[in-house]
Amino acid sequence: MPLYQGHLFSFESADDLAAAFHGPDEAFFYARMGNPTVRSLERAVTDVEGGAGALATASGMGAVNAVLMGLLRSGDHVIAQTALYGGTYALFQDLADRWGVDVTYIAADDPAEVRDALRPTTRLLYLETIANPTTHVTDLPAFTEAVRGTGVLTVVDNTFAPLLCRPIEHGADIVVHSTTKYLSGHGDVIGGIAVFADRDVHHRVWSHAVELGSVADPFAAWMTLRGLATMPLRVERQSASALDVARRLAAHPAADRVHYPGLDDHPQCAVARRLLPDGSGGVLAFEPTGGRDAGRVFSEAVRLISLGPSLGDIASLVMHPASTSHRQMDAASLAAAGIGEGTVRLSIGLEHPDDLWADIEQALAKSA
Ligand SMILES: *Cc1c(COP(=O)(O)O)cnc(C)c1O
Questions:
Q1: CA 95 to chain centre
Q2: Which of 61, 81, 179 has the most ligand 1 atoms within 8 A of CB, as the residue to mutate?
Q3: Rounded to whole angstroms, how far apart are CA atoms 39 and 53?
Q4: pTM for the full model?
Q5: Is there a contact between 54 and 193 (Cβ–Cβ < 8 Å)?
Q6: Which top CATH class is 231-367?
Q7: Segments making up each domain of the chain, as ranges
Q8: How many of the other CB atoms lie within 10 Å of CB of 21?
Q9: Rounded to the nearest 10 degrees, how much is the dihedral formed by the CA atoms of 70, 202, 137, 152?
Q10: 366 counts as catalytic
Q11: At 80, is the secondary structure helix, strand, or coil?
């Protein structure tokens, strides 16, 4: 697919141009409403997720925002899982504080939580396939079943599990991704996408997205298309290496607990086996026996792995949330979010697993 960088498209007929204004599937005329390279990405990810259409956005948060602001109004109620991506959680807080949207948070361990929280005003159920950083896995078929027939739409953030899980097959109505992560895959793109099971819902969100202006830039879409071509190979290798690292960590005396859905002692291991039969993705976390200091020292002692945010990159990354992204939180609030003071998150890249393990082992030795 070439890069169509142009933002305007000209017409012979005024009627043809007028018709182009009507929706996401019409002729290209102005790139905020659609662009050939961006649409090519939208079609590819629609196929990957098995949807009816997609909306590519400027970032993952752009997709989350377009979906939430496009479908909710003041007085509406949302049921969301507690372990959410930080930016999504902040947006829900904002929607509650400033826009009068009620949000009920659930642990997402039991679909009965949804039935208890449902109200006549409930519009959306918001879930994540695998949540950060402790890799909680949500039983998507059971949760979408809990709202079947109520008119509530289920939104699933599938950023951690592209290809490994296809939420629409499990009853989801909308899937969002930060394409910044696995879809582009090389740490050189900011982007997002929302995939819709239903054309009308796609149309409603698109109408809001063109007002919001959070649309994908053609160059970012083109880079993401290039990334998509290798995604199956990357995700397979990253899942295999993450499982290898998780097993070795679980057997190491300096790691107290390892969080990875592919391990037999994971709290949702049975769900993961059903939902993620081909692998559990590249993200794992562990609790160093030395607690907070050990987590921080480990994150600075790695050499092959880089200390930095993000995930899904070809390069492996480490984060110690308590001393970085979550530094404002005390031990109690961290615990409420399921994060330990020492918790270390790893996003496994494409390096050789033996090289990764050698790096992890030397960093564990320094942090013990
Ligand atoms: C990174 C991320 C986002 C936000 O994506 P951006 O591209 O940074 O805007 C949303 N959800 C999850 C699960 C993420 O990891």
A1: 20
A2: 61
A3: 10
A4: 0.97
A5: yes
A6: alpha beta
A7: 14-228, 231-367
A8: 12
A9: 70
A10: no
A11: strand
pLDDT over 90 percentage in the chain = 93
DSSP letter string, 201-229: HHHHHHHHHHHHT-BPPHHHHHHHHHHHT
Residue that the structure tokens 């592919």 belong to: 262
In this structure, what token pair is assigned to residue 296?
Answer: 């921080």
Q: Which two tokens stand for residue 149?
A: 């027939």
Which residue has 């390279």 as its token pair?
37
Write down the catalytic residue from 123, 181, 296, 345: 181
- The pLDDT tens digits for 200-248 are 999 999 999 999 999 999 999 999 999 999 999 999 999 999 999 999 9
Distance CA 54, CA 45 (A): 7
The per-residue pLDDT for 274 is 97
- 104: which residues sit within 8 A by CB, 6+ positions away? 77, 78, 79, 80, 117
14-228: CATH, from 3.40.640.10, 3.50.50.60, 3.30.450.20, 3.40.50.10490: 3.40.640.10
Token readout for 60 is 């993952």
Q: Which residue, chain included where needed, has tokens 């998150």?
A: 345
Q: How does pLDDT run across 336-349, given as a tens digit for each residue?
A: 778 999 999 999 99
Within its chain, how far is the Cα of 111 from the centroid?
21
Instruction: Give the Å distance between the CA of 363 and the centre of ligand 1.
Output: 28
Residues 6 or more apart from 218 whose CB is under 8 A from it?
A: 3, 4, 5, 31, 35, 37, 38
Strand-pairing partners, residue 288, are 255
Above 90 in pLDDT, residue 315? yes
Q: Which two tokens stand for residue 41?
A: 């990405």
CA nearest 348: which of 92, 135, 113? Answer: 135
Give yes or no: 248 in active site: no
Judged by DSSP in three states, 361 sits in helix
- What letter does residue 130 receive in the DSSP assignment? B
Cα 71 to Cα 87: distance, rounded to the nearest angstrom: 18
Structure tokens at 291: 């607690």
Whether 98 is catalytic is no
228 pocket-lining for ligand 1 (C-beta < 6 Å)? no
